[in-house]
Amino acid sequence: MRLIAAMSGGVDSAVAAALAVEAGHEVTGVHLALSPDRQTLRSGARGCCSVEDAHDARRVADSLGIPFYVWDLADRFREDVVEDFVAEYAAGRTPNPCLRCNEKIKFSAVLDRAQALGFDAVVTGHHARLVDGELRRSVDAAKDQSYVLGVLTARQLAGAVFPLGSMTKERVRELAAERGYAVATKPDSHDICFISDGDTRGFLARRLGDQPGPVVDAATGATVGTHAGAYGFTIGQRRGLGVSAGDQRPRYVLGIEPVSRTVTIGTAEQAEVDEVVTQVPTWTGPVPELPFTAAVQLRAHGSPVGCTVTGTEEGGLRIGFTERQRGVAPGQSAVLYAPDAERGDRVLGQGTVLRARERSASLHT
Fold it and tell me: S-S: 99 plus which of 17, 82, 148, 253, CB 3.0-4.6 Å?
């Protein structure tokens, strides 16, 4: 096959490109320039896509003897990922920018351009598996990235190659060292790539400015504090509330109302929900017949929980949990996995959470 290797400058994408070359594919390396000021997007293990990363990717491409290009997708990334991130927080939701980047950049903009140029697929360093066209978890549970790939469609998955899903991260580093790549010991990037200092609240404050409002305790209805911006909070948050509720019970963020700028907090019991309603879902393969049982994962590093999935009149999903969950926020992705033991690592699809609640009564909208 003719493949585009998306080379971030990290160890995963380096080894993925090498394995594609060694498998006999015709590979061209591509590094994505995602910021107009690329010197600002890495600080140690934080951030990515800097000039340093481009150089690391080029050195690996040179060692493989493959063509290498830098594609400038800064405008597309700013619009589809960064501005979406800011708008979602301003609306009181909690987005996942890595999921949005996979959906809009790596497997939309990049894949579309690659196929328009005559390539068959894009190979990446994601830790996930494709088995007979089905998206499955990586064998390395600690590094599994199937959650952030759950938004991809069957067409996009047909244009993807994930060589690392059958090995551990330790093995990936060993393969890089065996090939003499300097990135073998390069730290993994983490947090949000376009917030290189890790200060999400500070980033949003610079973009959205001061938007003061009240902090209200749901247990009493009393205003127990104020804040500088509701965008600085997420559903389920416990630390950093900056308020005293008058008793010793810990408080969690229950709701964020962006119009009135009200942040509602409550007890652990009040923070628990057993159902979410989602937007219209995307499916990684054939659309399952409703209703059905599955396992759902609500965060990138969360644990799956059993669930029953039904439809809504608007075309979304109603997902009822077998165990109550805490910290479920609008904007998160509810990724569904097959329920059976043999294929329980198979991703079925996902829906973006509109609201989380108790089945008997809504806790937050």
Answer: 148
Structure tokens at 174: 């060993």
Residues 6 or more apart in contact with residue 57 via CB below 8 angstroms = 7, 8, 9, 13, 14, 29, 31, 68
The residues with which 320 forms a beta bridge, in sequence order, are 275, 308
Instruction: Say if residue 339 is preceded by a cis peptide, omega within 30 of 0.
Output: no
The fold of 272-357 is: Elongation Factor Tu (Ef-tu); domain 3 (2.40.30)
Looking at residue 286, its pLDDT comes to: 93
Domains of the chain: which residue ranges? 2-185, 210-266, 272-357
- pLDDT at residue 365 in the model: 40
Nearest to 52 by CA among 40, 64, 63, 61: 40
Q: Return the CATH architecture of domain 210-266.
A: Roll (2.30)
Q: Looking at 48, 49, 101, 307, which residue is catalytic?
A: 101
Give the per-residue pLDDT at 332. 96
Quick check: helix, strand or coil at residue 219? coil
* H helical segments located in 191-301: 200-208
- Is 144 marked within a binding site? no
32 appears as a binding residue in the annotation: yes
pLDDT mean values, one per 10 residues, the chain (365 residues): 96 98 98 75 57 92 98 94 96 94 94 96 97 95 96 96 97 98 90 85 95 92 93 90 77 94 93 96 95 95 94 97 94 94 83 86 43
Residue 41 assigned as binding residue = no
Going by C-alpha positions, the residue among 333, 334, 319 that lies closest to residue 275 is 319
* 193 tagged catalytic: yes
pLDDT of res. 192: 86
Tell me the C-alpha distance between 234 and 255, whole Å.
Answer: 8
Amino acid 249: pLDDT: 82
Residue 98 catalytic?
Answer: no
Does 13 belong to an annotated binding site?
Answer: yes
Question: Quick check: 53 and 183 in contact, CB under 8 A?
Answer: no
CATH (residue range 2-185): 3.40.50.620
Q: Are 146 and 338 in contact (CB under 8 A)?
A: no
Q: Is 8 annotated in some ligand binding site?
A: yes
pTM more than 0.85: yes
d(CA 209, CA 212): 10
